[in-house]
Specification:
By secondary structure, this protein is α/β, with parallel strands linked by helices. The protein folds into 4 domains: 3-150, Response regulator (Rossmann fold), CATH 3.40.50; 172-390, pyruvate-formate lyase- activating enzyme (Alpha-Beta Horseshoe), CATH 3.80.30; 413-498, no CATH class; 501-579, no CATH class. 38% of the residues lie in helices and 17% in strands. It has helices spanning 17-26, 44-53, 68-81, 98-104, 116-127, 207-220, 236-248, 266-272, 291-296, 303-316, 334-345, 364-367, 392-410, 415-423, 428-441, 451-465, 470-485, 502-513, 515-521, 530-534; strands at residues 3-9, 33-39, 58-62, 86-90, 110-112, 140-144, 147-150, 178-181, 184-186, 202-204, 224-227, 254-259, 280-287, 320-327, 351-356, 375-376, 384-386, 537-541, 564-570, 573-579. A 7-stranded mixed β-sheet has the order 2-1-3-4-5-6-7, with helices on both faces. Strands 8-11-12-13-14-15 form a 6-stranded parallel β-sheet. It has a 3-stranded antiparallel β-sheet with strand order 18-19-20. The chain is globular, with a radius of gyration of 28 Å. The termini are far apart. Residues 550-561 have low confidence and may be disordered.
């Protein structure tokens, strides 16, 4: 007998934490258990063939918002080719309306609701029996002739220590994957757009065990571990102890945490200042700064404290800060969302995700959809189309702004040029709104773009919208040139960046023949030949100082010779230095 656990991940690099838990919890007692992960980018016909070739008697799928449509299609096709196969579904996307799913999809035989480790193991025990008694299993939905039976809910697992480490001892195959992990389950908050509001309390895994498991990821050189704890620092003492431990044992692994920004205290901020670059990444959900909205979704937030904490994280630590907003929440119209956007971007997080409300099945807002006038897609991911405060055309406009926000702000490629543009704008939202209007009129939303072309588009926008003088445009051009070279080595510059200067290449050869220069700028390889160094570096001149704040002081009047920059390109990124050449 073969029993297959499987799912369609969103991407190849992702892992299915829930299925890994079930596999490790059950496999010692049920060695016939198989586990295979696929992804939604693979051809469904191929996935079906692979599942068929396992010859499994039971196929159990994990269902999520990104894979539910494809999974149900697979279930139907699998029953067509192997009618005797037993199909089990689990995961958050089938918990809210299990009866409707089983009535609509006769290919589905069972649904596991809630935490699956204990329920599925009990199901396996009954499945082995000649006359299984499905009614004894809490958290199970099954068929009894033509009737769908929903058993009593499964109580939460209070002692999480009984669940084993989800992944294999040898983590080699996970080094280049995004590995999901948790130190707790549950959430203390009741945000009505989130399914976690349906849970009661927070349960923690044993802390010493957690530390040892985190060390396994570090020792294996796993690239990134994303902790799925809903609010990692809801217990500040717990969070600070684990952050302190990871700082002490830092390796090459990056750890991503979802945290509550206003719960950080001075001790936490002081601790985080010790974290080396690349160790921590924080995702902080702001969602909205509108008080009526926050009340409606039952979200508590001290925005002023959050603002101060995020600003300190960005300015005084090496933590990468990612913040989230949600467009489409109750009581937030277009103008209100513009204020939320401006207040959030003013903190200058490293990434600002402009998300759109999804009315998840089982969420509080889904139940209030009629009250708030929500129209939304009836298929996953249930994204809103409008509500009482936000029209569909306004949502389309926000989609265009989101696209440009990702290209220009979140890419991290336009630091100097974008900051200059925003400093001259009425507001950040107004600037992105105007840019998105221009983008649409140019037809730039109709096709894909090479990254290097985005620099020229921004300059064209500034040239054509009006209000920019010759010096401002020249300043922007120099900043764009700096941003371009600060991300990639480009010997042949685009036309907008000005003519290439052969004399800088000759200057470079003379510069690198100087032993002092090689030792100063290439201390790790001071013996490299000048021509080898040339391949890893670039000299560029600027007619306006690209890093002067505002470009309106005496720095902007310096002669060209004072504005030559050296860019050094290495595996760890790009370094730049201002050089003052002679002659």
């Amino acid at each position: 007998m073969k029993i297959l656990l499987t799912t369609l991940n969103a991407k190849y690099v992702h892992t299915s934490l829930g299925l890994w838990y079930i596999y490790q919890y059950c496999r010692s007692d049920y060695p016939e258990l198989l586990f295979k992960e696929y992804n939604i980018n693979q051809e469904l016909a191929w996935v079906l063939g692979e599942i068929y070739l396992t010859r499994a008697e039971v196929v159990a799928f994990s269902c999520n918002i990104w894979n539910i449509e494809e999974t149900l299609t697979l279930c139907q096709r699998l029953k067509e080719v192997t009618p005797e196969t037993t199909i089990v579904l689990g995961g958050p996307e089938v918990w809210a309306e299990p009866v409707q799913i089983m009535e609509s999809y006769p290919a589905v035989d069972f649904i596991v609701i809630g935490e699956g480790e204990l329920t599925f193991k009990e199901w396996l025990c009954q499945y082995r029996k000649a006359q299984p008694d499905w009614g004894t299993i809490a958290g199970l939905v099954y068929r009894n002739d033509s009737t769908v039976v929903v058993n009593m809910p499964r109580p939460q697992i209070e002692n999480l220590g009984i669940i084993p480490f989800p992944y294999p001892a040898n983590l080699t195959e996970f080094r280049n994957k995004l590995v999901y992990y948790e130190t707790s389950r549950g959430c203390p908050y009741q945000c009505q757009y989130c399914l976690s509001a349906n849970e009661q309390g927070v349960r923690f895994f044993p802390q010493e065990r957690v530390k040892q498991e985190l060390l396994q990821f570090v020792a294996a050189g796993v690239a990134q571990v994303k902790l799925v704890d809903r609010s990692f620092n809801c217990n500040p003492r717990w969070a600070k102890e684990l952050w302190r431990f990871l700082i002490t044992h830092a390796g090459s692994t990056n750890f991503h945490f979802e945290i509550v920004g206003d719960l950080l205290d001075e001790e936490a901020l002081a601790l985080l200042r010790q974290a080396p670059a690349g160790l921590f990444q924080f995702e902080i959900g702001i969602q909205s700064t509108n008080r009526e909205t926050l009340t409606a979704i039952q979200r508590k937030m001290d925005f002023e404290r959050l603002r101060q904490n995020v600003t300190q994280l960005v300015q005084t630590t090496a933590v990468f800060v990612h913040v989230d907003l949600i467009a489409g929440l109750p009581w937030e119209d277009y103008q209100s969302f513009a204020r939320t956007f401006n207040e959030t971007l003013a903190m200058r997080p490293h990434r600002l995700q402009l998300g759109f409300l999804k009315l998840l099945q089982g969420s509080g807002l889904r139940k209030q959809a009629a009250e708030y006038g929500y129209r939304f897609t009836r298929e996953a991911p249930y994204e809103i189309l409008s509500n009482l405060w936000l029209s569909y055309p306004e949502l389309v406009q926000l989609k265009r702004i989101e696209d440009l926000l990702d290209r220009y702000y979140n890419s991290g490629r336009f630091g100097q040029s974008l900051e200059y543009c925003l400093s001259r704008a009425e507001s950040a939202f107004a600037w992105f709104e105007r840019f998105s209007d221009w983008w649409k009129k140019q037809g730039l939303d109709e096709f894909a773009h090479k990254t290097k072309d985005l620099y020229g588009y921004l300059l064209r926008f500034a040239e054509t919208v009006g209000g920019w003088g010759a010096f401002e445009l020249e300043t922007l051009r120099n900043r764009l040139k700096f941003d371009l070279l600060n991300t990639e080595r480009m010997v042949e510059l685009p036309d907008w960046a000005g003519p290439n200067q052969p004399d800088l290449k000759n200057f470079g050869f003379r510069f690198w023949k100087d032993v002092d220069n090689r030792q100063r700028y290439f201390p790790e390889s001071p013996d490299l030949e000048a021509r080898d160094i040339q391949r890893r570096t670039l000299f560029a001149s600027f007619t306006v100082e690209p890093l002067a704040e505002g470009n309106d002081g005496p720095e902007s009047k310096l002669p060209v010779a004072e504005r030559v920059y050296l860019f050094i390109y290495g595996q760890a990124g790009v370094k730049y230095y201002k050089i003052a050449p002679e002659g």
